Amino acid sequence: MLNNVSQLPPSLTDVSNTNANLRAFLYGLSGVDQVGADARAAMLATRSIKTSAKLKAIDLAISMIDLTTLEGADTAGKVRALCAKARRPDANEASVPPVAAVCVYGDLANIAKSALIDTQIKVAAVATAFPSGRASLKVKLLDTQEAVANGADEIDMVIDRGAFLAGRYLDVFNEIVAIKNVCGSAHLKVILETGELKTYDNVKRASWLAMLAGADFIKTSTGKVQPAATLPVTLVMLHAIRDFDALTNMRIGMKPAGGIKTTKDAIKYLVLVNETLGEQWLTPKWFRLGASSLLNNLLMQRYRMQTGRYSGADYVTLD
Amino acid sequence: MNSPIEVNRTAKLFINGAFPRSESGRSFPVADANGKFIANVANATRKDARDAVVAAAAAQPKWAGASAYNRGQIVYRIAEILQGRKAQFMAELNDAGVKSAEKQVDQAINQIIWYAGWSDKLAMTVGSSNPVAGPFFNFSNPEPTGVIAIVISEKPPLLSLINQLCAAIVSGNTVVALAPQSAPLISVSFAEVLATSDLPAGVVNLLTCDSDEIAFWLASHLEVDGIDLSGVSDSELKTKLEFEAAINLKRVLRDFDDGYTAMQSWLEIKTVWHPQGL
């Protein structure tokens, strides 16, 4: 699905004509009730998911993972090992579904692509001077083109938080549009880096800005900044997706990333999606979990559910 | 002066250096030897045991990595703190119906110091350099087993606790211990001693609970590397737990006999062949 500016309904086509228009539109969005959002997220987090529902949620969460390695010390070997794990997360258990995607730096996308060529698993590459986003548009475009040329099916870009916080919304908007144009058939995930946006109002504005500019997915964080994904921030973004869908009939995906480490956390996010957007979003096509250590925790929980014994760190891979 | 407010003590679990209540909120009453109510004690569940294992596993590499000398100092410090709280332990032992309370506490303190001394001597008594037919320097060194689950014996209350715990931690293992239901307050007080004695968080985790119930979860837990079943009185259950422990080839100590043997139960011997003359 390609959602370009041209597909937007007439009421939204001219919001990005000038910075003043865009600013007026973003500031015209209703404010987020911070206390309310926190309380709602906390309330949904108390839902108890047990036994067979939990087992189902574990498998669903595994199939939604963007299995990630974004370290300076990444090597081709490490990416290959990660891909092997993505295909078959638990070597002892063939019934575990594969993950949704493997997420790496753009220069390693070709390694991941060739390791996953015969599977449905997508290759996601971070681009646009990830994680800071501090580079010229020219460099960011080249970075993206290279990742796409290396075989990335999905591009995870970061927005220019400096420009966003300084109020240069149109610059941020145009950058996303430009990146989207060079993505070709690759899906574009736009990382808002909510930990640097400070307020829920800003998160809501950035979500709308990214969706208007053509994002296929909006993503909370790079994982390099604290706080990363949190439940209330995810809730605010899910609300934005719901409202955008109602207004434009365009469906946008969601990816919380960073800090989701336990099965319990992952299930809380699934509950949040189900209660906010509904079941149709509960597929890897529309919802992803950016994570690395989460997968081991899910596998250990799965073992516990199926055997009645607790598993240990010696029985999952070292990543 | 007004009469002081009576402050009742809440006896809680000891997990990762903190004193949480049981996640379930459940507790059991404790009475003294005459049947008089003393306190409600937290009754740990399998989830508390699971959390304790997570804490013990996380603390283990660093504790094993500390120098033997340093571990010895810390174990010695436990004795120092216990000495300072001697009166409290004597009172609690009296409550539990122990006649020779003072002798027991003194013996416990001596015993801790005995273990502290062993920390930097185990390697040379248990380890060896081995003559081999080849150009190798061949030596065997003890390494800690890892996370040890301990079911503490009911009798003698304080001494069992100290023997079983110290035999494991002195060499760099970390512990999840199940206190006996008969005199749990002594274990809780000892946890308070541990919390104030430089022992890193998570090295010892103490749960007050129905040991027979919780031991199963520890015996079958893949993150646990050894289990001391001395406190399990039902021999049929003990055998069942041994079967569970076999799942990941845990070291099993069926009965605590003496400290030196117990210390060796929680050691793995690593033999290195080092080429000579290169």
Summed up:
The complex is a heterodimer of chains A (319) and B (278). Chain A contains 13 helices and eight strands.
Characterize the structure shown.
Chain A has helices at residues 10-13, 19-28, 34-44, 51-63, 76-87, 109-115, 137-149, 161-165, 169-183, 200-212, 231-248, 263-276, 293-307, and strands at residues 65-68, 101-105, 122-127, 154-158, 187-191, 217-219, 253-255, 289-291. With 319 residues, chain A is an alpha/beta fold. Chain A has a single domain, classed as Aldolase class I (TIM Barrel). Chain A has an eight-stranded parallel β-sheet. In chain A, helix 4 (51-63) runs antiparallel to helix 13. The relative contact order of chain A is 0.15. The mean pLDDT of chain A is 95. With 278 residues, chain B is α/β, with parallel strands linked by helices. Chain B has a single domain (38-275), classed as 3-Layer(aba) Sandwich (Aldehyde Dehydrogenase, Chain A, domain 1), CATH 3.40.605.10. Helices cover 44% and strands 19% of the residues of chain B. Chain B is built from ten helices and ten strands. Chain B has helices at residues 46-65, 68-84, 86-95, 101-118, 122-126, 157-169, 184-195, 211-219, 235-245, 259-265; strands spanning 27-31, 37-42, 128-130, 136-144, 147-151, 174-179, 204-208, 226-228, 251-253, 267-275. In chain B, strands 7-6-5-8-9 form a five-stranded parallel β-sheet, sandwiched between helices. In chain B, strands 3-4-10 form a three-stranded antiparallel β-sheet. Chain B has a two-stranded antiparallel ribbon with strand order 1-2. In chain B, a hairpin with a 5-residue loop joins strand 1 (27-31) and strand 2. In chain B, helix 3 packs across helix 4 (101-118) and helix 4 (101-118) runs parallel beside helix 6 (157-169). Chain B is globular, with a radius of gyration of 20 Å. The model of chain B has no long low-confidence stretch (mean pLDDT 95). Classes of the chains: A alpha/beta (319), B alpha/beta (278). Chain A binds chain B through residues 308-315, and chain B through 50, 53, 57, 217, 220-224, 247-248.
